[in-house]
Amino acid sequence: MMRAPLVNFRRLQVATPWPLVWTITIAFLLARLVVAVVRFLIWAVRHWRAWPGVVLVLVAVDAYQSHGWWPHLLVLVVLAGAAGLWWWRGRDSFHRLVVLRAVTVWRRLWVYRRQWHETMTLCGLVKKYDGGEKTPELLSVRCSYATDEVVLRMPRGQNPEAYHKAARDLAYSFGTRHCRVFSGRRHAAPHRSGRLAWVLRRVDAIRFRDRPRHVWLVFIRRDPLTRIVVPLPVPARPDFTALPLGLREDLAVYCLRLLATHVLIGGATRMGKGSVIWSLLRSLGAGIRSGLVRVWAIDPKGGMELAIGRPLFSRYVDDDWSRMADLLEDAVCRMRARQQILRGKVRVHTPTVDEPLIVIVIDEIAALLAYLPDSEIRNRIAHALGLLLSQGAGLGVLVVAATQDPRKEVVSVRDLFPTRIALGLTERGHVDLLLGDGSRDRGALADQIPLSGKGVAYVLLDGQPEPARVRFSYIPDDLIREMAATFPAPPEVQPEPEPVPAQVKPARVNGNGRQAHTYRPTAPRQAAPLLPSSLLNALDLNGTNTANGGDPR
């Protein structure tokens, strides 16, 4: 029996193996179905916050088909009453859990998602690859009272510098004026305690793990730093790792770490350097009164800034350059004494009443290092400041200095200040000089702070290379006088200088063991007149004529 050929060339027909075709088709469809199911599961896991909304919509549709609009109207009335009661009894929690989340959903869908691809393309953040486009992926949006925090994932081939350069374009594209770019997570993992702490720590280790391709964009929706910040409450006991000084642009309290660091404050005239100094002294008020903190103040401007709070200072100089140098040299002596005590025991000094934290406040450091006319005193001050800035941080002898000109030739010890605060500056290049190279490209626009923004500054936070924008509290003169009366410094007993005994040279001994005598010429005696006085009178040289203007004979 002959079999039919697979290909009939006479009729140009192919005998189709239908079992094979159906097998391949079914396998292909099953593979596509598996891929679709996996993608749906991944999407559902990523958008787990949408599950309650989907369930609510399904229940609402079923209730409408069964009972009409009456269940919906009843539910709305009950929810409105519960929301009003909640807003009346717990307004803060209602705003945090209801209002801000509603604003987050609205701005994510209408402001960011709707125009995301267009904005990323026009700002030059879309990459071309293999005939297609790689767009930054929008991950999450979180809104606060003043800011929108947008988290995105960069496509391959990008780094955060591209977003730093496009920050202003992004801000105006999304309808704001300021956009802050952060290459790292802005909030650390919370501290967990309790029975389930070990489980929560494992979860936090996954949630807060390092993600190098993630970028945080913070859009300032409502600038809270346009208003003057009122003085903050004085802590009952100062925490030297977190001293409250002002407000950040996200309405969080800005806390300065003063322990084991030196602070350099830079800003043009009348831009708020005094706000930083007095806010710092206010936060240290309780420690000043108890003796835990000793503030030594130097005001080279003759007391025009610091004299109003004189009772706050244990030592104060404003009128004598030599005394200013003596104060700094005394601080070096204190530092040396602590070195002898703490050597081999601890690396960072812990302030106590017996060994307090010494904070040296200098209102205008440039006057001491660059404009002081006496070169000898200037060298003494520069030498003492160099020792304090290079060795005093861990020993509890700290320097807080302010300057108008941060250039190296003016403030020669600028690089020895770990913590720097940039208020309104006059030149673009001063920003990088004060905060470090590239700080302006990372968002520190200190040269664009208006005159109305006194006290607004850019600072570097711990663990973040991007500077943060803060506004320090304004302390009026009457409040400074009240602070001086409420938190006076206890009297400080300054050590009297010990008399230095005269140095006695050892006696010289000759070869026989006897003391050798040193020849010292005697001083010449006053020359006596060669002629006796009787002969001088006889010669009429007693000066009578010379007294009358005549010449002696």
Automatic annotation (TrEMBL):
Comp. bias (Low complexity): 528-542
Q: Which UniProt keywords apply?
A: ATP-binding, Cell cycle, Cell division, Membrane, Nucleotide-binding, Transmembrane, Transmembrane helix
**Polar residues: bias regions:** 543-553
User: What biological-process terms (Gene Ontology) are attached?
Assistant: cell division
Q: Which PROSITE patterns match?
A: FTSK
The FtsK domain is annotated at: 242-432
One family name in Pfam for this protein: FtsK_SpoIIIE
Where exactly are the transmembrane stretches of this chain? 20-41, 70-88
Name the domain of life: Bacteria
Q: Which residues bind ATP?
A: G267, A268, T269, R270, M271, G272, K273, G274
Q: Where is this region: Disordered?
A: 489-553
Residue ranges under compositional bias (Pro residues)?
Answer: 489-500
Q: What protein am I looking at?
A: Cell division protein FtsK
